[in-house]
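ok so for the tutorial part 2 we go from a plain amino acid sequence to predicted structure tokens. step 1 is just haveing the sequence, like this:
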Amino acid sequence: MARIDRNTDRREVRLDGVAERRYEVRSAAYAVASAARRLAAELDAEAERPDWLQPAWHGAPRAREPWQPAGRYTTAALGVLDEAHRLVAAAVAADRAAGCDWALIGAALGVSADTASRRYRTAAPSAPAEDRPAR
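step 2 — the prediction. this is what the tokens look like for a chain of 135 residues:
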């Protein structure tokens, strides 16, 4: 009976970990969506202006003013990409907490299991000892 109780406790702890990781994935997804919405809103506001007031329509590169960021569109897109990278790391951590092995995660990412493990090991918890295959 003690063994059943121990396994039940482990399962509950694992489910709590999965739920926490799922929350992290959801939070990261909202951050990506928020960054993308900000970029889209900026582009919509810019599109409302006449062509001659839109920075993308200026012909030759001009000397930029000190308060104007260089590569505005690229900088804004990189913000969305950073949030997307955080989302992928959170998703990997959630999959690991749910018991997925590195081979499945690597296949989803299009890389080997070893590469996936090296890239995301610090973001993902290790699989519980009872789920690890014996070597």
